[in-house]
Amino acid sequence: NAGVMQNPRHLVRRRGQEARLRCSPMKGHSHVYWYRQLPEEGLKFMVYLQKENIIDESGMPKERFSAEFPKEGPSILRIQQVVRGDSAAYFCASSLGGGREPQHFGDGTRLSIL
Amino acid sequence: GESVGLHLPTLSVQEGDNSIINCAYSNSASDYFIWYKQESGKGPQFIIDIRSNMDKRQGQRVTVLLNKTVKHLSLQIAATQPGDSAVYFCAESNAGGTSYGKLTFGQGTILTVHP
């Protein structure tokens, strides 16, 4: 059984460029979540999506960040005009349903901003 | 505000000992809790979960205890092995409320198991 797949595993961008992070959920999962992790810290919730819908984006910065989960294809987290402070590990999780269903995580994308 | 925190940031044990990792949470509305294990360079790996209508749940070599009175969660690992060395996070959500998809994570406890 394939788990949550994220790519790329590592991404280097210069300030001002765009970063696109992809996430394919586990087979049969229609709920996707994005989290950000800074070194030595726990994960911080960013956004929760179901197919074609954003359910909760309360953890996502209002500017430069966007997320989508189209009917076909992976979920995308997009960061425009990246800044040094965007450097972090970005994790995607998926679950079978919402609420009291365990979220299963991918191995993340490590984003470095030069 | 809502927060989930850990009493002990590091824990060192000998192989074969039992380990107990603790977690305090502040949101009394939290009704769903999960423990994750994270190894270096990897994503969090689901260990065990518990709902607020329970106070104990057992898995393979692991037990989670929930004390809602004092808002405390613990993870017990029996016969700890070197492969258990990792960072352990507790996470909580108000699954029955408006933020039902959002997990709030604690800072993590580093478990080191010595052979």
Short structural description:
The complex is a heterodimer of chains A (about 110) and B (about 120). Chain A is mostly beta strands and about 110 residues long. Chain A is built from no helices and eleven strands.
Quick tags:
heterodimer, A: 114 residues, mainly beta, seven-stranded mixed β-sheet, four-stranded antiparallel β-sheet, 0% helix, globular, B: 115 residues, six-stranded mixed β-sheet, five-stranded antiparallel β-sheet
Helix content of chain B: under 10%
Number of helices of chain B: 0
> End-to-end distance of chain A, in Å?
36 Å
| Beta-strand share of residues of chain B | over 45%
Number of helices of chain A: 0
Label the overall shape of chain A.
globular
DSSP, total strands of chain A = 11
Radius of gyration of chain B: 14 Å
Helix content of chain A: under 10%
Largest interface, with counts of residues having CB < 8 Å to the other chain, equals:
A-B, 27 and 27 residues
Largest sheet of chain A: 7 strands, mixed
Envelope shape of chain B? globular
* Overall average pLDDT of chain B: 90
**Helix/strand order of chain B, N-terminal first:** EEEEEEEEEEE
| Percentage of residues in strands of chain A | over 45%
What class, by secondary structure content of chain B?
mainly beta
Radius of gyration of chain A over all CA atoms, rounded: 13 Å
